[in-house]
Amino acid sequence: MAANLNQLDRRRFLRGSGAALALPLFHSSLPLTAASPDRQTNPKRLACIYFPDGVPMPLREDPAYQDWSWFPHGAGTEFTFTKCTEVFQPLREDLTVLSGFSHPEARRVHGHRNADQFLTAAKIRRQGAYQNSISLDQVYAEHIGDQTRYSSLVMSTDGGTGTPRAAQTLSFNRSGRAIPAEQSPKKVFDMLFVKSDENAARRLAKSESALDEMLADARDLREILAVDDKRRFDEYLDSVREAEIRVQKARQWVKRPLPSVDRAKMEADISPESPRLYVQTMLDMIYLAFKTDSTRVATYQIGRENGAGVSDRLARAVGFNLAHQLTHNTKNPGGWKNLGMYCRFLNEEFARFTTRLKETPEPAGTGSMLDNTLLLFGSASSAFHLSRNYPLVLAGGRNLGFKHGRYLNYAGPNPMGGAWLGGKEPYQKEINHDDQPLTRVFVTMLQQLGMETDSFAGATGNFPELLG
């Protein structure tokens, strides 16, 4: 007979020879009030995922428009995905595509500076004193962070903070100071799940599984779990072991230094599959952190702007050398398709991550993990360096009141696009259509996550069209 685990500390660890592995959430370990079917007791999570450099936006008269435009064709519930975004089709009822949103203070800013502002909406100019403000994730982390082991998880492919106007992190604290992002999935894994003494660290360094020393403890614990929790526990151990294997493989790629030798030789030495594995592993870290309730807030900056850093080499996942160069080559034959194939790769990995949340029952509540998790995926550029009409996907949050299965297009009938052929760049041209303030979406997100607020970054108003 399963024991009542209401007194079990949800931050308990499996222990073995100096190492400790965090436990997942168990339905039977929560207080009875938290285990009720009331959806308001479900954990509420937020993850924001950013990619740089914008998306393909061929003009309507361009033959590439039909297949490789990032934005869908149509509007409302009557829309079709292109080859660039068709990977979202199985998730159609779980996401909303947004067009015609941007931050007013960033619309005249060169797109290479947009990562700094994506989650803050701050006024950051090309020159002069640099001052940012608190990011969306950290606003929510201040509200919810004391309920979990970590207030937030901050990650990026390039790591650290970058430099002012060239951020390598999406997250900024209350004073506008950049929060360093972690780039090593191994370090994220160890931070979230493994505490070790010197001996345990040496064993992990030899690629021995952190789980092997803990299986006896795990078997003892499993005996007192309820039937549903036994299944959750077994799935969790499998997930951790799978992630550990991925981490061991992926860290071989991310640890490679930036090229200081012949570029052709460097590229030949690195497997083209490594970038995909790396992105998958980083997203797996968010999944496991959420599943174990180690945190309810996460950010991941897939790449920094301007083609700098290790992240620019992620394009090799689909057979290209450098990601940023694809945006400059859209004027060449096949250029839109090439950029579209890279964006499709990013979309595939976001869809895979979203699907995994959808297929996982909420460990300690109702619905799926996706139903209780709000995902923001996108960029702060659309066409070449254009800081308007951000390409955005809002997914999940069904139990938070969000209604999906729509393409909400506020960009107007002829959004700026096309290849840059020289002269003024798109961001320098006259604004002929006012976007919706993205802060209204942010306010709605925070409200549905349980915060009492009607403003973000000094801008008031929400966007109830997102709700059911």
What integer value in Å does the Rg equal? 22 Å
The CATH architecture designation is 3-Layer(aba) Sandwich
Given as residue ranges, the uncertain stretches (5+ residues, pLDDT < 50) are 1-11, 31-40, 196-201, 203-208, 256-273
CATH class: Alpha Beta
Gross geometry: globular
Question: Can you describe this structure in just a few lines?
Answer:
This protein is α/β, with parallel strands linked by helices and 468 residues long. It has helices at residues 65-68, 136-144, 185-193, 198-205, 215-223, 227-254, 263-269, 274-291, 323-328, 335-359, 438-448, and strands at residues 13-16, 19-22, 45-50, 73-75, 78-80, 95-99, 101-102, 153-156, 162-163, 166-167, 194-195, 297-301, 373-378, 392-396, 406-409, 436-437, 455-456, 459-460. The protein has a seven-stranded mixed beta sheet with strand order 8-12-3-13-14-6-15, sandwiched between helices. Strands 1-2-11 form a three-stranded antiparallel beta sheet.
Topology:
Elements: E1 13-16, E2 19-22, E3 45-50, H1 65-68, E4 73-75, E5 78-80, E6 95-99, E7 101-102, H2 136-144, E8 153-156, E9 162-163, E10 166-167, H3 185-193, E11 194-195, H4 198-205, H5 215-223, H6 227-254, H7 263-269, H8 274-291, E12 297-301, H9 323-328, H10 335-359, E13 373-378, E14 392-396, E15 406-409, E16 436-437, H11 438-448, E17 455-456, E18 459-460
Parallel strand pairs: 3-12, 3-13, 6-15, 7-16, 8-12
Antiparallel strand pairs: 1-2, 2-11, 4-5, 6-14, 9-10, 13-14, 17-18
Report what the structure shows:
This protein is of the alpha/beta class and 468 residues long. The chain has one domain (45-184, 255-466): Alkaline Phosphatase, subunit A (3-Layer(aba) Sandwich). 29% of the residues lie in helices and 13% in strands. α3 runs parallel beside α8 (274-291), α6 runs antiparallel to α8 and α8 (274-291) runs parallel beside α10 (335-359). The radius of gyration is 22 Å and the shape is globular. The chain starts with 12 loop residues before the first strand and ends in an 8-residue tail after the last strand. The model is unreliable at 1-11, 31-40, 196-201, 203-208 and 256-273 (pLDDT under 50).
